[in-house]
Amino acid sequence: MGAAHTAAAMTALFLGWAPPAAALALEGCVRVVKGWNGWEIRHRDLGHGRVAFAESWSAEGTYLDLIVTECDSGDTVRTRVREEMVKDRPAFNRTARGVEIVDRHARRSPALFSIDALAADLADVGEDTDVRRVPAEFCACAALYPELRGEKTAFEGV
Q1: Rg for the chain (alpha carbons), in Å?
Q2: How far apart, in whole angstroms, are the C-alpha atoms of residue 81 and residue 148?
Q3: Mean pLDDT by 10 residues, the chain (158 residues)
Q4: Pair 64, 56: CB distance under 8 Å
Q5: pTM of the model
Q6: Rounded to an integer, what distance in angstroms lies between the CA atom of residue 92 and that of residue 148?
Q7: What is the DSSP letter of 15?
């Protein structure tokens, strides 16, 4: 450790400030959910404080939900784009069309982006589409936009 680095560290400790812990990397957000058979995967930065990821589950059946959230408000849309043997309905896979819709909305001017408009378009492709305000921070938001946490419960690790 160089003398300048040591002096800076000593000054920081003396003033009661410590540098932030190592930041969470987006790649670290891939994690097991819902026991051993569910995953959060495909985390992406959509820009302007928005992230997208997928939740995948596989046991007796399989599903894939696309999730997009506004990190500052927690407003989140979730839609099922792939499913087989989970509910009493025919199997479907509309993942590519769902991703295309998310990408199209993400390219819009930030002033024109709306979770509700995204949800309306996703509802035409996905199943069980809903919008809700999530009171807890998602991993991708913690990794990319920690300053937007606000009053939400902090993400606590993978």
Answers
A1: 19
A2: 28
A3: 43 39 72 72 94 89 94 96 90 96 94 94 96 94 94 82
A4: yes
A5: 0.81
A6: 36
A7: T
Structure tokens at 7: 């002096």
From 46, 43, 121, 47, select the one nearest 81 (Cα to Cα).
121
Q: Is beta strand 62-70 parallel, antiparallel or unpaired with respect to 38-47?
A: unpaired
Instruction: Annotate 3-30 with b (16+ C-beta within 10 A) or e (fewer).
Output: eeeeeeeeeeeeeeeeeeeeebebeebe
Q: Are 31 and 39 in contact (CB under 8 A)?
A: yes
Angle at which helix 95-106 crosses helix 115-123, to 10 degrees, equals 160
How many whole angstroms separate alpha carbon 76 and alpha carbon 50?
10
Q: 55 near 29, Cβ under 8 Å?
A: no
Check: CB of residue 145 under 8 Å from CB of residue 69.
no
